Amino acid sequence: MVFSSPYFLFLYLPIVLLVYYLTPLKARNAVLLVFNLIFYAWGEPVYILIMFASIAIDYTHGMLVERCKRRGNDRAARRAVASSVIFNLALLFFFKYWAFVAGSLAAIGLPFMPRLGLSLPIGISFYTFQTMSYTIDVYRGDAGVQKNLINFGTFVTLFPQLIAGPIIKYKDLGDQIDHRPHSPEQFASGVQVFVVGLAKKVLLANNLGLLWDAYKALPAAELTTAGAWLGVAAFTFQLYFDFSGYSDMAVGLGRMLGFEFMRNFNYPYISRSITEFWRRWHISLGTWFREYLYIPLGGNRVSTPRLFFNLLVVWAATGIWHGASWNFLLWGLYFAALLILEKAFLLKLLDKLPALLRHLYTLFLVAVSWAIFAVEDFSQLGAYLKAMFGLAGGGLTDAAAWYYFRSFLPVLLISAVASTPLAARLWRRLPERSMRLLLPVLLLAGLVFSTAYLVDATYNPFLYFRF
């Protein structure tokens, strides 16, 4: 089940909210846990067993870490943390990377790992990172141990951000799991954020996805340079509005239930360096890797060679986190190289350039990265990158490129504006009375148009489902 579906919008969500608010405060986590499990089991009932295993393992390990720390046995506490981390990583490896490693070994003549043919559990990359943070936070003293199994299960399975983030660390949500406020103002704010996210996903991302799919499917001989850049532009906006829209819906749903989740995107396409871009894109993932991998490796308080090594490790992990394919590892290493260059000398040079050139520099490199990210087949990727750099089999342009450009120009322009703070700034300049009158009209229009699109269309992909 995805948020951008009529079943969720008009069946599951109303039932959840009705039952949740009719339930006494003390029992709401238990009710929410049941609905969380129903949400996950809707698509993959067998893999709900993974949820139970994650809850049981990390709950017991958290208790073990706390007991060892209380007794002054730090070595045993570290072993308990290590055991929890190994379990979570082993779970992630088995379901997400086993087939990838088996296939890669078989390709070089080492076919000793059987191919199991398992489907990927939805959202496993997100919730394994969340549960891993729990025992680490308890060990570090950043969070108290959760002794209530129902409350801990609610944290692990929380449906608003279960399958696509944002990645919530236990230390940021633990207090809210135990006690959280509920107010009409918070609920109304949640509805507003949710509808905005729904419109971004359905009205922008889905339409732009049609354009990207058309160009991704073209044979190399028919691909033009103009078409390749038009396709990448479509994917650049599709990915942003797909994922940020889903994150907005998660934040909105959280507020409807009394939770406050961290912001996952902060207008990344206005960045003026790759370093800034990664402070604005998928903030929860970047924060997780910084706190649980980059800083433990030494962060930037090390020698220059070691700093570059740390960046290489973190970005290789970031790349492969996104998918079990060589192109994702290449994508991560691509950003590692750019960030190393910026830290070495490039940022100082960029600071001397006009803001527009720095912005264009960032957009160009990010667009190239999305081609690497989106095309898993290396031969197809090579042809696509060649086309982007003027070596297209179909020449510079053709009639199809102009047709697609004219057809999708309105949604591309709207997407370009919507990916900047311009609309928000203009909105805040309106008189308060005008804002109060316009807001419900715009939200209703967004919901109606999104619903009409979902009812009428069969194309409703969700890119981060596979992660």
Automatic annotation (TrEMBL):
It is found in: Cell membrane. One of its GO terms (cellular component) is plasma membrane. Pfam families: MBOAT. It is a multi-pass membrane protein. Its main location: membrane. It comes from the Bacteria. The chain crosses the membrane at residues 7-25, 37-59, 80-99, 105-129, 307-324, 330-350, 362-383, 403-424, 436-455. Keywords: Acyltransferase, Cell membrane, Membrane, Transferase, Transmembrane, Transmembrane helix. GO terms for molecular function: acyltransferase activity. The keyword GTP-binding does not apply. GO terms for biological process: alginic acid biosynthetic process. The keyword Acetylation does not apply. Belongs to the membrane-bound acyltransferase family. PANTHER family: ACYLTRANSFERASE (PTHR13285), PROTEIN-CYSTEINE N-PALMITOYLTRANSFERASE RASP (PTHR13285:SF18). This is MBOAT family protein. It comes from Lawsonibacter hominis.
